[in-house]
Amino acid sequence: MPTKKQSQVTAAPTRRRELLDTAAEVFAEQGYNATTVRKIADHAGMLAGSLYYHFDSKESMLEEILRTFLDELWDGYDTVLAAELGPRETLRALVTESFREIDRHRAAVAIYQKESRHLAAQQRFAFLTESQRKFEKTWLSTLERGVAAEVFRADLDVRLTYRFVRDTVWVAASWYRPGGQHSPEEIARQYLSMVLDGIAIRPQPLT
């Protein structure tokens, strides 16, 4: 039977995660600048002073929220890239992994979309710019490989296509709710059927 001290040690990380989840929802709904530690504490059902026991500032909370989301996103992306799939299969896997991350971190994705541009100007959040560059390189190289391999159309504007796919996928965070009618994998499949039908080479009719 666990001792009281062991139970407290186990409960601490869980409580921290709960508080970060609450903060993420408040940041996503009200915006970073409008959110105060008191507002987060109110939503968590605790005093603002008690929140400082876990975090020293709202900046610390936001940084941990965004780093956790991006670390998990890149764990998934790196696994996809390490598999060395063909460009079409890589694109499919990246889109699917993106929707899985929206399912896990919907609020964090919404914050990233709304706040990352001005947050990145702060040294504390410089990692956002680095991640964005890496993200862009990953998607552009996948599309470029597809064009080179004649899997995607030769006239494809890869940068425009990247922006279209990026925005089409990540804007789902504004309406997606975990536990809804469709799983992340099903939504990804539906999105991909629309995207790939537009960029894949169509078989030539037999003469």
Q: Can you put this structure into words, describing what you see?
A:
α1 (4-30) packs across α4. The chain is mainly alpha-helical and 207 residues long. The protein has 9 helices and no strands. It has helices spanning 4-30, 37-44, 48-51, 58-82, 87-104, 106-119, 127-148, 158-170, 184-199. It is elongated.
Features of the shown structure:
207 residues; mainly alpha; 9 helices
- Helix fraction bin: over 70%
Order of helices and strands: HHHHHHHHH
Molecular shape? elongated
Low-confidence stretches: 3-10
Span of the ends, CA to CA:
77 Å
Query: Based on helices, strands and strand pairing, what is the structural class?
Result: mainly alpha
Radius of gyration: 20 Å
Beta-strand share of residues: under 5%
* Overall pLDDT level: 88
Largest sheet: none
Please tally the helical runs, counting DSSP H or I stretches of 4 or more residues.
9
Extended strand count: 0
